[in-house]
Write a structure and sequence with these properties.
The complex is a heterodimer of chains A (about 300) and B (about 325). With about 300 residues, chain A is mainly α. Chain A folds into 2 domains: about 50 residues, no CATH class; about 210 residues, MetI-like fold (Orthogonal Bundle), CATH 1.10.3720.10. Helices cover about 70% and strands about 0% of the residues of chain A. In chain B, α2 packs across α14, α4 runs antiparallel to α11 and α8 packs antiparallel against α11. The longest helix of chain B has about 35 residues. Classes of the chains: A mainly alpha (about 300), B mainly alpha (about 325). Chain A: It is a multi-pass membrane protein.
């Protein structure tokens, strides 16, 4: 350990020239690394590819199964056609979009306001209140479902968008993340606006928020993905198939249609697609967001 | 409040000379900040704090989903929970899933990150391929995997048979479905640990390795002597996060039960809570079970909290 430390300290004095990155040489070792990495990445894609090619087979060919062949002998959109004719899939997709949008908008709105309050304003009992909010980070949602269902049904929100969405907007960890980010913004930036007589809402909108783009994007994207993929709560609170979200609809209703693999895989492909697109667009923010958990 | 006690108090404050200029707080304290925090506090109170208190209360009652009057029954639910073999079996299954899924998810996460860190020129492709499953809804994941696990026509069984490992029976997954749920979970969630490790690897300065190069260390020595010790904190964090995630196992187990997997009579703990509450209508009993889960997770979350706060020092 100490040897490493002295090395670390010594390396800080190392001449800058040594810092220049050497061009990677192609050695047998690095070729092996590239080969292994590439093979694993392909292996990881197999389930996607298998679902995709199955979805383009006619049902008779897909469900027969054997012998295994990757490329459809006969390309067909039958699975997708049946899916759209039945129409449920579209309904669930719309429901998921509505619920996730409500959750994301409300979470961002409430958490930004609260984080600003905790970061920039002083009010009686602030420390205690913030402590209670932080404690909420540790509470597993799964352990609350029983009484939560009782509360939501007392509010007559079962089988409604609000019943699905509101409990998911409680995200104390997002307040923690946003407050820490706001805390790091130097106060000097706000002074000028404050001297001009701007109120706190104005400061938040025209000083803090423009400086917080990346963190707002990260919080927004993670909230959206989390809500879209939430399974247990929507499973409890959406009993009517017309109000179900996509994961619940696919898991509960579509499973009942039995072993129709072309159709099932078409549903899987369509179910995966929206978030894969979100992921492809926001890959950088998502990767950074996950990384942030470990670095901070 | 009686006037007897109120009057002297009021009098004493009135008698007190006006306080001198506040010496301690240059910052203005006002109730304004509370308005910013209030919208969140409202939903937090209704959908988290209140259910927590309600659940604790229900755990001491015979509250039922059928809505008959609630009666206080003391510790009966708690005593029943610890003596209920089905509850303990499901808790054991959750523990088994946690023990089986955590090592591969941590070790493979690290291994994949080490590979991706060295194979930098295809880094974007590796990140895409390893992390993409993580953003897919769980029911899509289980649909695809149940299809791959099918004994007849399933991809996995086919290749295992072709390589002489399975014949026409599903190798390893036939007797005990836990293995298939673990394998699916590894594919689905590995990307998260992978990214945590990859980010940590990228913060290690290149100079550290250059110093070792001068000393003539080989790759393996650098891995054991430099990389792994520097990843100690990340590993602690990854393990704790993974333990919490694995203890919360429900979705994939629930969705795979009754499919290819042979789970009809087996449960994980959250599924048992769910069944007690929503199939058996016993909200009081399910609340007591919930609190057992709650305590298990909180204990590990507290460790995480300590890890994170130590990091901030």
């Amino acid at each position: 350990m100490t040897a490493l430390q002295t090395r670390l300290e010594a390396s800080e004095d190392a001449p800058r020239a040594a810092k220049r990155r050497r061009r990677p040489r192609v050695t047998p070792g690095s070729a092996l690394v590239y080969f292994a990495a590439f093979a694993l990445a392909l292996l990881w894609l197999v389930p996607f590819l298998w679902a995709l090619t199955t979805s383009f087979k006619p049902e008779t060919e897909a469900s027969l199964g054997q012998p295994i062949h990757w490329i459809p002998r006969e390309w067909s959109l039958e699975g997708y056609r049946i899916l759209f004719e039945r129409g449920e899939h579209v309904t669930w997709m719309v429901n998921s979009t509505v619920v996730s949008t409500i959750v994301t908008a409300l979470t961002l709105g409430m958490c930004v306001l609260a984080a600003y309050g905790f970061s920039r304003l002083d009010f009686p009992g602030k420390k205690v209140v913030y402590g209670v909010v932080l404690a909420g980070i540790m509470v597993p949602a799964e352990a609350l479902i029983i009484p939560l269902f009782d509360v939501v049904s007392a509010l007559r929100l079962v089988d409604t968008y609000w019943g699905l969405a509101l409990p998911q907007t409680v995200a104390p960890v997002m307040i923690f993340i946003l407050k820490r980010f706001f805390d790091a913004i130097p106060r000097d930036y706000e002074e000028a606006a404050r001297i001009d007589g701007a109120g706190h809402l104005r400061v938040l909108r025209s000083v803090i928020l423009p400086l917080s783009g990346p963190i707002l994007a990260a919080v927004g994207i993670f909230t959206f993905i989390g809500s879209w993929n939430n399974f247990l709560w929507p499973l409890l609170v959406a009993n009517d198939p017309s109000i179900m979200t996509l994961p619940v609809g696919l898991g509960v209703v579509a499973r009942g249609y039995g072993l129709l693999y072309a159709q099932n895989m078409a549903a899987a492909v369509l179910g995966a697609l929206p978030l894969l697109i979100v992921f492809l667009i926001f890959q950088k923010q998502i990767v950074k967001g996950v990384a942030g958990v470990g670095l901070k | 409040m009686s006037t007897d006690t109120a009057t002297p108090a009021a009098a004493s404050t009135a008698d007190r000379p006006p306080s001198p200029a506040p010496a301690r707080a240059p910052k203005r304290r006002s109730w304004l900040g509370l308005w910013f925090v209030l919208p969140f506090l409202a939903v937090y109170a209704v959908f988290m704090l209140w259910p927590m208190l309600l659940g604790l209360y229900y755990s001491f009652t015979d509250k039922s989903l059928t809505g008959r009057p609630v009666e206080w029954i003391g510790l009966a639910n708690w005593a029943e929970a610890f003596g209920d073999p089905a509850a303990m079996d499901s808790l054991w299954n959750t523990a088994r899933f946690t023990v089986l899924s955590t090592p591969p998810l941590v070790i493979l996460g690290l291994a994949f990150a080490l590979l991706a860190h060295r194979a930098r020129r295809i880094g974007w492709f590796l990140r895409l391929s390893f992390f993409a499953p993580f953003v897919i809804p769980v029911s899509v994941v289980t649909m695809i995997w149940l299809w791959m696990y099918q004994p007849a026509g399933g991809l996995i069984n086919h290749y295992l048979g072709e390589w002489g490992l399975g014949g026409d029976r599903l190798w390893a997954f036939q007797e005990d479905a836990m293995g298939s749920v673990v394998a699916t979970t590894v594919w689905w969630t590995l990307g998260f640990n992978f990214l945590l490790y990859l980010a940590a690897l990228q913060t290690i300065p290149a100079e550290v390795y250059e110093a070792a190069d001068i000393d003539g260390a080989n790759s393996l020595q650098k891995l054991w002597g430099i990389t792994l010790p520097l990843l100690k904190r990340t590993t602690a964090l990854v393990i704790v996060l993974q333990l919490i995630a694995s203890l919360r196992i429900f979705d994939q187990y629930y969705l795979m039960a009754g499919g290819a997997a042979n789970l009809a009579t087996e449960n994980v703990f959250i599924q048992y809570i769910y069944n007690s509450g929503f199939v058996g209508f016993r909200i009081g009993y399910a609340s007591a079970l919930s609190y057992i889960l709650f305590v298990c997770i909180i204990v590990i979350a507290l460790i995480q909290f300590r890890l994170l706060s130590r990091r901030e020092d």
